[in-house]
Amino acid sequence: MKNATLHQLQVFQVAARHCSFTRAAEDLFLTQPTVSMQIKQLSKAVGLPLFEQIGKRLHLTNAGQELLATCEKIFSSMSQFEMTVADMKGMKKGSLNLAVVTTAKYFAPRLLGPFCHRYPDIDVSLKVANRGRVLERFADNADDLYILGQPPESLEAELHPFLNDALVVLAERHHPLVGKKNIPLDRLKEERFLMREPGSGTRMMVQHFFDQHGITLKVKMELGSSEAIKQAVVGGLGISVLSQHALALEGTTGQLAILDVEGFPIRRSWHVIYPKGKKLSIVAKTFLDYLLNEGKEVAEKTSLEMTKDLW
Fold first, then answer.
1. What is the pLDDT of residues 92-112, one digit of tens each?
2. Residue 125 and residue 127: Cα distance in Å, rounded?
3. Between the CA of residue 243 and those of 61, 92, 139, 303, what are the distances in Å?
4. Percent over 70 (pLDDT), the chain
5. Domain span(s) for CATH 3.40.190.10 in the chain
6. Which of 67, 87, 198, 270 has the fewest C-beta atoms lying within 10 Å of its C-beta?
């Protein structure tokens, strides 16, 4: 395998994780023919096929599985070595790969800002995806750290709560309930309700809350993002429950309002997680320490300042 290149191994590693040349091309910002060509050349260097097509699905061969395990060790060791050397030089240098659920996109960049200014030689990759996709990436050990609000209880993970959150009832600014105090929870049964899609952490927590109180909502629409829900609320299609962090840029628009409903806000925590037994890189440890100490103060302060006009 002396003719194999690191680039070919990197392309193979991503393609093997996805079992898809198309998704590998998307992740690597390459064309699909380029990925196919790199895999073909690598297979030639190995002397055995690395993938096989069964029906419409792509699968790793035995040789491919062995090579993937080898790639994981190679790149993990190289990354650790580079960051160890940088640390010995008194520098923080290397890469940080984060995957966050869609609602976290409202505060994750604000958390990263001061960190990146402090450590300008750290290259950060931020993947934003729905909860299911983030859990897939977690299972594949595709990133350094993961941020989500509702980790599954069965997850074999190190869990670190680092940021407080509040789920609030949201309405269009001119809705009849805006300005009323301590609205009975039962009153929401009369309203058209907008929900996040099934599988969303917010959806699960909201559904659990109303089930506990014996409230059956009139769910008129399910939407796949907080942005879509906010636009639907502004359009008068109904009311909803969203994370306060998802509203952090709405204070100046004057189109949304938070309702004072009995039992709300629902309190929860955001978690940063990684697989049990995973050895974090120096850069990942540095970011985790920052997140658990200074970072949460940045996000909480910004969120409170930018949502105060919605109450």
1. 677 899 999 988 888 888 889
2. 7
3. 44, 33, 26, 11
4. 90
5. 73-163+269-310, 165-268
6. 198
- The per-residue pLDDT for range 253-277, each reduced to its tens digit, is 578 899 999 999 999 889 999 999 8
Q: What's the CATH class of domain 165-268?
A: alpha beta
**pLDDT tens readout for residues 235-249:** 999 999 998 888 765
Query: 10 Å Cβ neighbour count for 195?
Result: 20
3-state SS assignment for residue 56: coil
Per-residue model confidence as pLDDT tens digits over 14-27: 999 899 999 999 98
Instruction: Kindly give, in sequence order, each residue whose CB lies less than 8 Å from that of residue 289, ignoring residues fewer than 6 positions away.
Output: none
Residues of the chain with CATH 1.10.10.10: 6-70
> What is the reported pTM?
0.66
- pLDDT, residue 251, reads 46
Give the pairing of strands 256-259 and 157-172.
Answer: antiparallel
Buried b (16+ CB within 10 A) or exposed e, 248-275: bebeeeeebbbbbbebbbbebebbbbbe
Q: Report the C-alpha gap between 296 and 310 in whole angstroms.
A: 22
The 8-class DSSP code of residue 184 comes to: -
CATH topology for the 6-70 domain: Arc Repressor Mutant, subunit A (1.10.10)
Classified as helix, coil or strand, 194 is strand
In a 10 Å sphere around its CB, with 0-12 CB exposed, 13-18 middle and 19+ buried, how is residue 7 labelled? exposed
Distances (CA, A) of 104 to 28, 124, 179, 265: 23, 16, 29, 18
- Taking only Cα atoms into account, the Rg of the chain, rounded to an integer number of angstroms, comes to 23
Instruction: Identify the band that residue 83 occupies on the pLDDT scale cut at 50, 70 and 90.
Output: low
